[in-house]
Amino acid sequence: MKTVSDELLDELMGIMREAAAGEILPRFRSVTSDTIRAKTAADDIVTDADISSERMISERLKARLPGITIIGEEAVSEDAAILANLADAELAAIIDPVDGTWHFAHGTPMFGSILAIVAGGETIAGIIHYPVLGDFLVARPGQGAWHVAADGARTRLSVAMPTPVNEMHGFIPLHMFAPETRAELAPRVLKFLRVTTWRCSAWEYRMLATGAMSFCLNDSLKPWDHAAGVLIHSEAGGYAATMTGEVYRPRMTQGHLLTAPSFASWTDVRKALSQ
How many domains does the chain have? Predict the structure, then answer.
C-alpha cells in the first residue's frame, strides 16, 4: 500500500492553510444572500467559499500528485457521476472544502476543511483543518492520530475511556434520518447521558478523537464526511462500523455509520440503539 511521507503530509497541510487564508477566511462573516445557494434542501447550502476553496485545493493536489483522482463534495453535487470514480482510483483525494457550511454561512466558527488521501480503497492520510483556530487533526495508518497546533506543536490523541451506556455522551443527527427511523431512535437516545448534533463532521470527529464525546451515529455515508475522520478516530483508538457490522471503507455509500471508543463500546451502543 502507498504511504504518505512526513514531507507530503506537511505539503498537504500547507495546501489547506493556503486555501483557508486565501479563499475561506476572507469570506467568513461576510457571507451575503447572493453568495449562498441551496443544494438538496433549504438548510443544505453552498457558498462561494466552498466552491473557490475546493477548486484551489484540487488544482494544488493535481500539480503535486499528477494523475490523482479528485472527489470533491461540491463537484459531486454538480455531477454525481464523479463519485463513481472513487471505486477504481489508484490514488484519490476526497475533499470537503468547508464542512459545516451552515455554521460558516451564519457567522459561527464551527466549521473545518477535510482532506482524505485514498490508495486502493484505503485511507492513507486523514487531515482536518480548523481555519479559525489554525490547527489540525492528522493521521496515517499505524502512526497514531495527532493534534497539530497552529505553532506546529503535536499532541497524540486518544478517544474516550469506555463507560456504561448511561454515562455516554454522543452525537446523533435525528433530524437527518428518515421519519420512520427517527421515530424509532428518538426514545432510545434517552438511554444515554447526553445526545446532540453539531451539524459538522469536522468538529464531531474532533470531539470523538480527543475523548470529549464517546460515540456518533451518522445517517449517511458520504466519503468527504467520513474517510478522514474514521482514520483519525481509529488511530486514536476508536472503532467504527455500520450498524450491520461492516467495517467502514471510503467507497461505501449505504448504511448508518456508528463510531465508539472500542469494539465492546460499539456493541453496547448498537444494542442500546437497536432495542
Answer: 2
